[in-house]
Specification:
The protein is of the alpha+beta class and 283 residues long. The chain has one domain: 2-Layer Sandwich (Nucleotidyltransferase, domain 5), CATH 3.30.420.10. The chain has seven helices and eleven strands. Strands 3-2-1-4-5 form a five-stranded mixed beta sheet. A hairpin with a 6-residue loop joins strand 8 and strand 9. Helix 2 packs parallel to helix 3 and helix 4 packs across helix 7.
Length: 283
Amino acid sequence: MIRAEKEKIEKEESIYPRYILGLDVSTACIGVSVLKDDGKSDKPEIVYLGHKTPKIPSKIKGIEALFLRKNIFEKEFIEEVSSAYPITDVIIEEPLLSSNNVNTVATLLRFNGMISESIYRILGIVPNFISSYDARMYSFPELLAVRKYNKKGEEYPRKHIMKALKDEKIVLFGAYPFDVDKKTIMMNMVNEMYKDAPITWVMGKNGELKKENYDACDSLICALAYVNINHHGLEPVRLTDYSISSDSDDIYYVTQIWDRTYQKSLKYPKKDTVENEDKGGEK
């Protein structure tokens, strides 16, 4: 190994381990997680996972309520976590601005900005931001697939699927029905990833999974995506090949990102054969 290469590797290794704080911010509950990233494994150690619910008197409303919730989060979590872990990076999920209520959107943006300022002021770290779509895509890119169902829950015919493959149309949760519970799928993906050291989620009095767990899980997904991006870079998930089985009507295709390849298939009965249909092609 020449000296320049050795010095480069030593410099890269010196920035690890990194402690990544993931946040999913809402006014009611803030999901929080801390990952220890050694720079080598794409399954970093979870050193903290939970949620914070800043409670204030119900009579306090508006901007004052946001200020008080921010102050509580600073004292009950940011100052505490900064003394427990040497946080090096912060990744925050961008607010999902899908509400038709302008006041709700404005409140989410304000509170997200307040928490971001608290992070910078207390930890001295400029936070990074990621959309929920990108967080899910870069944490678990195997979730991208050709759209299998229409909005009525009916499976698309093979001809429609073949056109989608030719047009390289793959989307998140493409293998699932439109009305699937995406948060449950993401939690299942996380549980499978950490099955060797199972995550203990918070349960309610009747043994039900508390909804705050989904906020914690979202923060973890943001942090996992951040780790993957840091390790491998930003690039799209690509459709690299597709074909039809020679002895059935089943469709096979391949998606790829970084050094990962995912083999996928769609099963079709033989009677669905379409005459003179293109048998597929390599992209």
